[in-house]
Structures are given as structure tokens and as C-alpha cells.
Amino acid sequence: MEKLQNGYLFPEISMRREAHEKKYPDAKVISLGIGDTTQPIPSIVTSAMAEYSLALSTPEGYQGYGPEQGQKSLRKAIADVVYPNMGIRDTEVFISDGAQCDIARLQMMFGRDVTIAVQDPTFPGYVDNGVIMGQTGPAAVDEESGGSRYAGIEYMRCAPENAFFPDLSRVRRTDVIFFCSPNNPTGHAASRDQLRQLVDFARRNGSIVVFDSAYASYVSGDDKPRSIYEVPGAREVAIEISSFSKFAGFTGVRLGWAVVPDELLYADGTRVARDFDRVVTTCFNGASSVAQAGGLACLATEEGRAAVARVVAGYKENARVLVDTFQALGKEVYGGDDSPYVWVRLFPGRRSWDVFAEILEKTHVITVPGSGFGPGGEGFVRVSAFNSRDRVVEACARLTSFLA
Amino acid sequence: MEKLQNGYLFPEISMRREAHEKKYPDAKVISLGIGDTTQPIPSIVTSAMAEYSLALSTPEGYQGYGPEQGQKSLRKAIADVVYPNMGIRDTEVFISDGAQCDIARLQMMFGRDVTIAVQDPTFPGYVDNGVIMGQTGPAAVDEESGGSRYAGIEYMRCAPENAFFPDLSRVRRTDVIFFCSPNNPTGHAASRDQLRQLVDFARRNGSIVVFDSAYASYVSGDDKPRSIYEVPGAREVAIEISSFSKFAGFTGVRLGWAVVPDELLYADGTRVARDFDRVVTTCFNGASSVAQAGGLACLATEEGRAAVARVVAGYKENARVLVDTFQALGKEVYGGDDSPYVWVRLFPGRRSWDVFAEILEKTHVITVPGSGFGPGGEGFVRVSAFNSRDRVVEACARLTSFLA
User: Fold this and answer.
1) Among A101, A312, B119, B122, which has the minimal tally of Cβ within 10 Å of its Cβ?
2) Distance set, CA A323 to CA A53, A329, A357, A385 (Å)
3) Of B61, B283, B388, the CB nearest to A101
4) Looking at the 3D structure of chain A, how many domains does it have?
5) Average confidence (pLDDT) over B76-99
6) What is the pLDDT of residue A27?
């Protein structure tokens, strides 16, 4: 625990926001920071949760513990709707209270003695959970970027220079590779060919890929896979984790899932799914049954699927507005097409925490400093499309005044 | 992971039940097995959850991520209602998705290098999470009882011979002591004097007590503390974990909490709460906001508190029926007064899995074999009061026919 650097990124930003609001009590702060959904959940979904809740007060409708792995109906809906024609069975889908919690459980399963690789930059949860489990050495400040790196972790640089995909011929073999696509924070969705390279690399090395597809519903077009299981051979090397958070506005409701295919084996031939099942039944008691009722309503009907897709489409339009704004300002900007995140270098050469602080000071807009996602994120800030259209437009106007 | 013996206890029992139902498709199986609530949740609670859910479809009512540590209002309600006059501050209460999940997070925080002590018998989650974290050596079969013990764990025998409280003068010092009171499975609630001994023992040894009070609402009378914080000095040595599961029928809804007092320090003087906060914010994203709305409704009004207390009182009457039945049969029986669990030795000298199997075969009643809770549980079965009165009465009639 002592090795963990500073606070966890998002609580740190919350504290900075609070301090700012104290300093400027009349400022109307707009958060394009933490990736938290803001728009109402379609009523077809919340009605299902309300109905389920009320039924818990009736003898017929009361249900206690469900299966730790989740309701059969929801597991089946995910297998059928999210993974059509990918050969995913309902028994391979484990319902969870969110992808972040699954990362913790997976890291608990992997234990202290594994080596891990992560994209750089990427969501900090993979590394931080690894540090808590004791997989790493101490952190050291990276001279070039000013960000910190933990000894023992393989950082796979994903930058504009390599089109946000690592040169795998230069990546050291590790036991586990965490790979997030569309990537948080860069917004880059790996192409089919890139994921094929990743799967081949993992097969050659006997590595397990943990593929985080939490933003899959934001992908545009068919050339970029929404799941790693679109790639042949992935069932033998990959776990996929995903979430209703950014797909259905469930950040507070808490619902996600992990897929652990039966063909995924340890070197000794035993099934990884067997261990994960044991972790889920021992360290977890299943996601809230009310949340699961809501998740099923998102997937079970055409109406539900269309309703949640409309909310995602709205956030994607916000992302378009942000990208257009930064492009009009002549800034170096990425992401937004396949993700709710826009990745922008506002002041080349300056540290991202300084840029974050100056934007907040001058425009009362919250972003996230890129170095919070790893040393490779230094120099960038992440701007989130999760807000109402009005606020995004207002934030863009302020940013334009400040940056133009 | 390889060291874990067999399946986790409760899924194992589910499998045995399924096999039994296949063999006897017409039998009306009654489960007095897994401690799963069966009675409807008071409508004041489910209405609050339904209302909260529906509000998520409105711009005003939508809320995304809450604080990872839980809603302020719920933390405050727990501090005020559950811990009156015990000096617990709302900031010391961490809302969770259940006590089992908090055990996993605490074990993740403690890491591989701590030593632990547990009651024997007790809830298997403490040990199993410790095994997953790598705290133990391999399991060995205990010659005397036939149960298995893990090397490195200090088993504190809690048996009829010592009135279910360990002789602490013979207990080896460990870094952490898991202590469940009222104990699952024996139903024994430690007295004020016993908890004082435990706190003194931990203070002398510099140990942390993890006090599991999940069944506190079942305690009768004022001589047995419902919280370890009723004991002077406990704030400096104890974490308390608890749950809405057995208190409000939330086994499927998922809601619990942990209390980590500010005065609880590691040997180097740093606050344990700081580490736990980091684990909660890194490995968890908070309990479902809908469940939290329900939890608040259980505590915030006199009406809510009275409604959930009535459900608990109903289960306690069931426990009375069970105890009376076994006493009338001349069996050695414990528990039931301060807990929904009755602990009974039906056939002295016989193994508890055999007793479990015979009861199931002859009466179609599910119990839990005592050895599932540790080697000290061998010879007993746990009988749960979680069912409708009708079914408990019917089960007692069948058990009487079989045993008389």
C-alpha cells in the first residue's frame, strides 16, 4: 500500500474542484473531468428497477441471494446481444458491480507473482490494483515526462507517434496484458488488424489479455471490433471486462460483467474460469438484484436497446462538438469518434497538471490531466463528453475565449 | 488459489440440493441451509428504492457516481442509529455492497504477509479470502475432526466446552483477529466481559480485530454488546463490518458497511482508515445508489426502523420454534436466542456431512454441515431460521418424525 503514489486520480480531482469552488463561490463550474454520465436513464430501464424493487415487498416477488455469477436471464442477454455470433455462452459471462471491481477481483486472482503490461497512457485502475496486490516495485519519477512508473510493470507506449498502438516487437513478455479499447483516455479504438496482432502476441507468449471494452458502445463503423472475441483465437487468450456504466448511465447503479471463456487455460491446463468463479463466489456475492433487473431491461427488448443507444449517440455528438472546437483552435486533438473522451495537447511542452490547473482557473472547466493515466499521458488533458449539450457548448465557448 | 479446498461451502450445498431435487422431483424441499432471507422487505423500504430508481429518469433526479465511501446521509444515519453514543463519526463509516465483499477488501489491504486468527467454527469467508491472498500454508486434514486446517492460521476453538469463547491465554498472537458475534454458525453472542477480554488481548498484542456484527440485530437483552465499540478502547483496535442483508432482507439487494475508526493505527503510526479509503476508491466504486436509498429508508424514520425490526422478530420466533423442537427431542442445541442460527448435534459421533446428507435424504430439509465452518464445527449442523413460519413448522414436523 505504501508504494501507491499520491491519491487515486479521480478523488484528487474532486478535491481540487472543491478547493476551486471555495475560492470562486459564484463560478459556474462545468465538469468535463471524471467520466461520469449525466443524462437521465431511459424510463424503460428505471421502470424495470422500480417494479423489481416493489415486488420485493411481496411474497411472490421477494428474492434473496441470486447466483453470485448473476441472473441467468441477464447472462444470456449479454451473451446473445453483446456477443452475437462470437460463440460466447451465458455460463462464461459473470455479472459484476462494475469493471473497476472486476479489475480488483482479477488482480486478486492473479496474485502477487504475476508480471503485467499496460498501455501508456491508460485507466489507472489496472496498475493501482497491481500495486496493492504487491506485483510491482517502487515508483520512480520518469525523467522525460515527469510522470511516475512502477518498477516491474511493462508500459506499452500508445502515442500519436505510433498511432496509439504499441510496437509489440519491443514489448517485453508478461503474464497478463491489460488492454483498453476504445482506450481511456486517448479515445483510440484498436483496428481489427491491431487486435489480431495483440491476440497473436499473447498466444505466442502464453499471456492472458484482459480486454476492457467499457466504451465499446461508442465505436463507430465496423472496421473496429467492439469485442476482442471478434478476433479468431481470442477465446484462448482473453478475458473481457465491460460495464453498463457508460453504456446505460449506470455509473451510480453499478453493473458490469466479465467474460472468461472456457478455452482460456493456465499453463498447467486448468481453466482460468474455475479460479475466477471461486473468486466471485468467495469475495463477492453478486451485483445488486435491482441493478440486474435494470440491466436486463437495457438488453432484452428492441425498445430498451434503442433507448440506451440514443443516450450514447447524444454523448457522441457532444464529443464531436469538443473535437470541432479544438480543431478550430488549431490544437492537436484525438479521440471522440469512438469514445466519449477527447485527448488534446493544448500547450505543447507544458505539464498536464499545470494545464489542468490553468484551464480550471481561467474557464472554470474541469478536465483530467493526462499524466494521471501514466507517464505517456504527460502534456495532454482528457476532456469528457459526459455532460448536457448546453454545458458542453458553454464549456467550448469558454475554452475558445481563453485559447483563441 | 490451488490451496483452496473443494468448492466454497454454499455453492457446494446448492449443487447437492440440485442433485437431490433431480433424484426426488416431487419432494417439497425446505431450505434451512444457506442464511438467505425469505420474507418480503417492508414496503417503506422498497418504495424508497422504486422512487429513487424512477427519479434517475429525470434531469433533476439523475445521479451518476456517488462518493465511493457512500452517501453522506446514509453514513450519518448508520453512525447515529446503529452506533448511538459510541463516538462513531459518519466519516468513519464506509458503505459497501455487503460484509463478504468488505472481508475481501480488508484482506486485500492486509496483504499476503499478515498472520490471522479466526474462531473455530466460523463463517468461512475470512479464511478463504486469506488463502486467496496467500496468507496461509497448505491445508491439512485435522485427524481428530476430519475437517481441514490451513497452516499458519490460528484457529480459536469456540465450543460448548468453553461456552463458545476462546481461552485467550492459549491463543497465539496474530496481526489480525477475525471475530464474529453473534457467531455464525453457533449463534453465540459474546458477553460484554468476553469482548473486553478480546479488546485487551488485541491491545496487548498490537493486533487488529475485525469484528463482524452482521447478526447484531438478532441480539436479545442488553448484556451482550451489539457493537464492539460498546467496549472501551475498541476504537484503537477494531474495525467493524456489518450488513443490511440479515437486518433488512437485503441479501440480493446488496448493502453493508465497515467502520474504521480514526484512532486505529498501524505500528508505524499511520492510520488504517487511510489505507482502507484507498482500497475502497481503487478497488470499488461504491454500493449501488438504489440500494443505498433503501438502506436509508430502513434507518431514517421510526417507521422504517420498526418495520425492519418486525421482520427480524419474525425470524427470531422461527429460531425459537427450532430450538424448542430440538430440545423436545432431547438434542444438544445452542444458539437461536441472539441469532437466526441454531447449532445442533443430532447424532453424536457422526460426521456432519453425513448428518447433512441423511437429513436431506429422509426429510428433504436442507441444513449446513458444521465442518464447513472449520474443523471445530464437526459433529454439528447449522439450521437456519430464514424461512416462512409455515415452512419452519413443517420442517420441524418432518425432523420430529425422523428423529423421535
Assistant:
1) A312
2) 41, 10, 21, 10
3) B283
4) 2
5) 97
6) 96
Q: Which domain holds residue B345?
A: 9-41+304-403
Q: Is the pLDDT of residue A385 over 60?
A: yes
Across all residues in chain A, what is the average pLDDT? Answer: 95
SS (H, E, C) B332-377: EEEECCCCCEEEEECCCCCCHHHHHHHHHHHHCEECEEHHHHCHHH
**A21-73: pLDDT as tens digits:** 999 999 999 999 988 999 999 999 999 999 999 999 999 999 999 999 999 99
Average pLDDT for A100-104: 97
Pick the last residue of a domain from A266, A301, A336: A301
Please indicate whether, in this complex, the C-beta atoms of B129 and A282 are within 8 angstroms of each other.
Answer: yes
**Which positions in chain B touch A111 (Cβ < 8 Å)?**
1, 134
CB pairs under 8 A between A and B: 230
For residue B104, what is the nearest residue in chain A, using CA coordinates? A283
Q: Which amino acid is at A180?
A: C
Q: How far is B329 from chain A (nearest CA, A)?
A: 31
Report the alpha-carbon distance of residue A173 to residue A179 in Å, rounded.
14
Q: What span, in angstroms and rounded, lies between the C-alpha atoms of B151 and B182?
A: 26
pLDDT at res. A141:
78
| Chain B interface, best mutation among A18, A47, A54, A56, by max B CB count within 10 A | A56
Instruction: Give B287-307 pLDDT, tens digit per residue.
Output: 999 999 999 999 999 999 999
> Tell me: the pLDDT tens digits for B340-390?
999 999 999 999 999 999 999 999 999 999 999 999 999 999 999 999 999
Residues of chain A in contact with residue B293, where contact means CB-CB under 8 angstroms, are none
Q: Alpha-carbon distance B211 to B202, whole Å?
A: 12
Query: What band does A6 get if pLDDT is binned at 50, 70 and 90?
Result: low
Residue A144: per-residue pLDDT: 66
Strand ordering across the sheet containing A381-384: A332-335, A341-345, A381-384, A368-369
Question: Based on the domain organization, do A121 and A234 belong to the same domain?
Answer: yes
Chosen domain end from B268, B301, B334: B301
What CATH number is attached to the domain comprising A112?
A: 3.40.640.10
pLDDT tens figures, B148-192: 789 999 999 999 999 999 999 999 999 999 999 999 999 999 999
Among B36, B133, B291, select the one facing A64 at the smallest CB separation. Answer: B36
- Work out the angle between the directed axes of helices A302-328 and A289-299 (0-180°, nearest 10): 80
Residue A18: CB atoms within 10 A of its CB come to 10
Task: Read off the CATH number of the domain in which A321 is found.
Answer: 3.90.1150.10
Contact B283 A58 (CB under 8 A): no
Read off the pLDDT of each residue in B193-215 and give the average, rounded to a whole number.
98
Residue type at B53? Answer: S
- Residue B46: CA count within 13 A, CB half-sphere: 23
Is A22 part of a structural domain of the chain? yes
Residues of B in Cβ contact (< 8 Å) with A249 = 56, 62, 64
> Which residue of A44, A288, A366, A390 is the best one to mutate when testing the B interface, meaning the one whose CB has the most B CBs within 10 A?
A288
Same structural domain, A251 and A341: no
Check B112 against A100: CB less than 8 A apart. no
Interface predicted TM-score (ipTM) of this complex, two decimals = 0.95
